[in-house]
Amino acid sequence: MWLIDSLRKLLLPRNVGSPPESGFSDVNGDVSKDSDDLQLIAPESGEVPFPLVRPRSADILTTLAFSVNEAKKFRKDKDKESGRESLYIRPNKLLPRLNTESGRLELSTFCIDEIPEDAVPVFLATSAGGVSVGRVDFLPADFLERSLSLDPNWTPHRHVDVLDWPTEEDAQKAIALQLSVKRPGILWAEG
Questions:
Q1: What pLDDT, in 10s, does the model give residues 110-127?
Q2: pTM score, two decimals?
């Protein structure tokens, strides 16, 4: 509980009532009536200190985090020019899963727009099933360039499904491989 209280102090807005410029609003803020892209979502409980606005379209999303629950899902690569090591997600971890309710192939991501960097690990751990040791941040264009689409369904909060995967396994693997080398990962805990 102390963690939630600490996050609430860190994340609650100082200017309640004035929405941030990016188009998202906090729980207590107003969404302007002329905004067709946003829909205010009421919190399911008082335990969610993050902005709870769902976009009506994926066009305003800027950062989608893929949560990683084990450090071994990353691989290290060394840049030949700089000599620096970077972490990249293993391609097989970016393959879509079949949602048995909807029948869709989906890759689960979370929108982390406007969440302070030091609060992202806690947000992903609570939203993605309790364990998160790292993440890979993608831009929406990373998926859209590969003919995939985004469904910002916000179930759970800030959840965005990556859809329209090809049904052929080889084509899925090719896309996952391209995505795995697109963005380096961030590891904040061994696990």
A1: 999 889 999 999 999 988
A2: 0.72
